[in-house]
Amino acid sequence: MQKKRMIGLAVHGTLLFILFLTIYPLFVMVISSLKTNIQIYQNLYFFSLPLHFEHYKIAFGQIYRSILNSLIITAGNVLLTLIISTLAGYAFARFQFKGKNLLFMTMMMMMMVPYFLILIPQFIISQKMHLLNTYAVQILPPSSAFAILSTFLITTHMESLPKSLFEMATIEGASDFKIFYYIALPLSKPILATVCITTLISSWNNYIWPLVSANAEKVRPVILQVSKVVASTYQMPGVNFAAYVIASVPLLLIFTVATKPFVEGLTAGAVKA
User: Fold this and answer.
1) What is the pLDDT of residues 97-116, one digit of tens each?
2) Transmembrane residues, as ranges (predicted)?
């Protein structure tokens, strides 16, 4: 019993230490956003009075347009990725067709290709299609990349669903679309939530591709705009930290609310029926 207790204390202590390493940088970022440059240099790691909430007003005034851009881009990526991956995942899980295994393995192999290898060809294609500095260039190419992992997750989950449900629906005369819409999708809500969250995070944090393809201010996402926030020397870098906090809030809120379905989705296809 004593040995188990010591092991338990060691495990909990390690987890608390990891939690501290994860949260403390966020804490420093938040408190630094409320300081002037002098306060930051004098006391970086703890609060300093007075608190300067005006930094958030200055930062928000410079990034609110880019936040709207990021919301549009992220919504487009999530929607398009869901459409592609759910249809493809259902097809791979339910139908038998020539070249199915080869196509699926080829798609999985594409996950191993470093993104930087296709960056230049992707840029050239987008340039020839006149898509640069548009919302489309930040939605179409990234969605094709996000859909690969999403298709794998959804295929694995749908293969774990009881085949008897689909067989009964077929006997009752339901079409493939009705089976997909009324049976497969409702039973796949956990994995769809996981796909939504992973796509949302990847899209919101996508930095390299927008940097080379959509740097115009009218379509610039917030992840690029935060590096261009300016203020007086006295207020910097507190205003920069305020911009980072504002840009992080949407993801923190969504992930906090959706943690349970995210975990359920990751484990949904672990056991096949």
Assistant:
1) 888 889 889 888 888 888 88
2) 7-27, 67-90, 102-124, 136-158, 179-201, 241-263
